[in-house]
Amino acid sequence: MSSGDSNAGGTGNTPRVWGNIPPRNPNFTGREELLDQLHRRLLVDEATAVVPHAVHGMGGVGKSLLAVEYLYRRMAEYDVVWWIPAERTTQISVSLVELATRLELAPGSDAPAAVDAVLEALRIGEPYSNWLLVFDNAESPETVQRFFPAGGPGNILITSRNPQWASIARPLEVDVFRREESKQLLRLRGSEISDEDADRLAEALGDLPLAIEQAAAWHAETGMLVDEYLRLLGEKRLDLLRGTAPLDSQQPVIAAWNISLDQLETKNPAAYQLLQVCSFYAPEPIARALFARAPRGPIATELDAVLEDTIRLNLAIRDIGRYSLARFNRDDSLQMHRLVQAALQYRMTEEDRATMRRGAHLLLAANDPHDPNDFHRWDQYGSLYPHVVVSEAVRSQEHWVRNLVVNEVVYLLRRGDYASGRELARTAYKTWSETLGRDHPHTLLVARWLGFLLFSMGAYREAADLNASVLDAYRRTMGHDAQDTIDAVGNVAIDHRVRGDFAESLTLTESVHQQYLRMLGPEDPETLRAAHNLGVSLRLTGDFARARDIDEMTWNSYITMYGQDHVDTLRTWLGFILDIRELGEYGDALLYHQELVERSTSLLGTHHPSTLSAFHHLAAAQRLAGRHEQALRTAEQAQDALIRRYGPENPETQAAALELTVDLRQCGHVDRALADGFEVWHQLTRLYGHEHPRTLTAAVTLANTCRVRGDAAAAQHICRAALRHLTTRLGDDHLSSLACRSSLASCHHDLGEPDAALELDTDAYQRARRMYGDDHPHVLAHAVNVAVDLRSVGRSQESDQLRGRTVERFKRRLGSRHPAIRSAADLDRMVIDYTPMPL
């Protein structure tokens, strides 16, 4: 929820765009010197370059309050003022996405793209040049810094307890109040307090602003004499020191809160218990809607009654606010300071902690949307996620809470946040292995999702070891025919693909699909998922015709079940498009592919894994359709986007990088294609090994570039080794093997060995015709190369006849304007590049 409205002309009192700013503290006191100093610094930097300013200091000194007060005093001097909770990257991303919407920049539901758009708009100063971003509670410079605009005409303000910001931002340290400021705030809330009593209170509270404000609020509410308050404060401090006391700097404020908490516990036990529950959540907004759903079990007597009665719940929340124990935001959420949470947890017994932590978990589980595959539910899972992590929901003994943890893992996977998903899944797997046992259903369930996350991140060996152990456990505990066991077989099939054992993977995925057909029928979602995986395996083995038939049926079933705009529908549609493309239907494949990218972008955003995968394959479709410059632009954009999202070593990034090298060569950028080709081949070798089909395809692509650049001898050496391994792994008739055989023939031709070239090209041509018919574009490319060889050995008449037939077939298949037509007519040797299929 944003503060204020976005408007074109501004009001003279507010910025044109402003939002998320916490409410102004009506009792703000002092800090005039710091406010003036901050304003002078921001004015200086506004005239030069963006330099972050870090307002830092220990907890409770009022860093955020200072920033809020500055904004309300100076916001009219800015076009854009935006407050960003920065303790976690998810918060930053959500806030910047909202800003993108207010600036009319947001591309649908795509968070990363919206963030990029905002940062670029701020950098160039369009539509507004005078802006101020406030990153509140930014504890990790490494994490937060990447969300800063790279320059621009605005300002960045940071509040943090971390002094490391001083090395990369201009620091402004906020210390405790001066004594007069403490006394002023105390008298503001209680004018009857004498100067002497105010001095004694300030001394006892160490002039810590948060403690002073809390004590002033409590005194105003109760009217207790200062002597009595100081006596209680001394007792609470002794209680702290007898136990495991917090940091010295936190003792005064925690002791002060203990007095208010005692009063609240007496006056409204349910409100107190509600605070106890919330103390186990993250110090981030907690939606009031979280308390609207009945938990799956009792928590505490008073709290249970309040949670069933909206009126009593509102009264409890009102009493919490009267003692300044939580902040209430405009978006109908409440937020607790981490020191209030520490005070609450410190005063609990171990039994209380266990009870209230369990209550926190039960409320979270009651709000589980129960469908992490539905992108409409992702915002709900995103709001629950920080509280699931901080509350240590993985330690819950409740079945429903563990289900929520697994669903959060699936949500993070589907959202494409692999790193966060892997961290949560690993924590759950380790915890449940120790507390429930490695063979417990929840332990095995989260292990399966962890295996898929590891696969998605390229941690293949770890994924394979985990998947093998999970399959073994299911077979031991549930038998070979149980559904969970069958699912685990599907994960192991993926590991075979990673190892390059495509035939074995096909055998396994075929068996999984058949078992689901018998168990659940052809239209069950599990059967459709197995059918999709079968299509993947068929493509990898080169059986594109059968893959097309399977994928088309699966795609149509998904449309009937979910509609066209569903993640599963789009994923299988990509498979179908790849099938028809590899069967030579380049025009139809390109049209479908363009529509797929548009749909995926609209539904999921440009930076979702499904969109990125579709986008990088679009480059290959454009290239095969003869649109080489367009393909190069697409390939560069796809690789850049994947690097930004997942880094340069991610498997999908490497697949996009391989396509880019082909497009660079096709557009004449041979030197860059060669340099990038070597790097891609090295990366894939590290990822898959020397003999994996994907690595071998990269080697053949590199050889093609070497030959085009004039080094046919090096290309020949590469192709000979690659062909030997490809035929062993995939057989002689796989498109990848045929493309390698053609590349080797081209090397012989360039080295003045036309007879050897003719023999290889003729063999490849005949095999391709048997596999794909006379009119497949790859078959026609092989025919052109045979015609070139025939002319080289003096058989010109045969060459001309073959060339004539081939040109006519090319025109019928690809249209008269495709670049391949001119190459065929001119008898230019054709480079046949094979695009590896997704694993």
Shape: elongated
| Main sheet characteristics | 6 strands, parallel
> End-to-end span in angstroms?
42 Å
Oligomer: single chain
Average predicted confidence as pLDDT: 87
Text of the CATH class of the domain at 17-173: Alpha Beta
| Strand order across the largest sheet | 1-3-4-5-2-6
CATH superfamily of the domain at 17-173: P-loop containing nucleotide triphosphate hydrolases
The helix tally amounts to 37
Structural class: mainly alpha
Give the helix proportion (percent range). 55-70%
Q: Total number of β-strand segments?
A: 9
Question: Care to describe what's here?
Answer:
By secondary structure, this protein is mainly α. Among the domains are: 17-173, P-loop containing nucleotide triphosphate hydrolases (Rossmann fold, 3-Layer(aba) Sandwich); 177-264; 268-352; 694-703 and 714-839, Tetratricopeptide repeat domain (Serine Threonine Protein Phosphatase 5, Tetratricopeptide repeat), CATH 1.25.40. The protein has 37 helices and nine strands. The strands form two sheets. A six-stranded parallel beta sheet has the order 1-3-4-5-2-6, with helices on both faces. A three-stranded antiparallel beta sheet has the order 7-9-8, with no helix packed on it. Residues 264-352 form the DUF7779 domain. It comes from Streptomyces nigra. Residues 32-189 form the NB-ARC domain. InterPro entries: DUF7779, NB-ARC, NLR-like, P-loop_NTPase, TPR-like_helical_dom_sf.
Topology summary:
Blueprint: E1 17-19, H1 32-46, E2 53-56, H2 63-74, E3 80-85, H3 89-102, H4 111-124, E4 131-136, H5 141-144, E5 155-160, E6 170-173, H6 179-189, H7 195-204, H8 209-222, H9 226-242, H10 251-267, H11 269-278, E7 286-287, H12 301-307, H13 310-322, E8 327-328, E9 333-335, H14 338-346, H15 350-366, H16 378-390, H17 399-415, H18 418-435, H19 441-456, H20 460-478, H21 483-499, H22 502-520, H23 525-541, H24 544-562, H25 567-582, H26 586-604, H27 609-624, H28 628-646, H29 651-666, H30 670-688, H31 693-709, H32 712-730, H33 735-750, H34 754-772, H35 777-792, H36 796-814, H37 819-825
Parallel strand pairs: 1-3, 2-5, 2-6, 3-4, 4-5
Antiparallel strand pairs: 7-9, 8-9
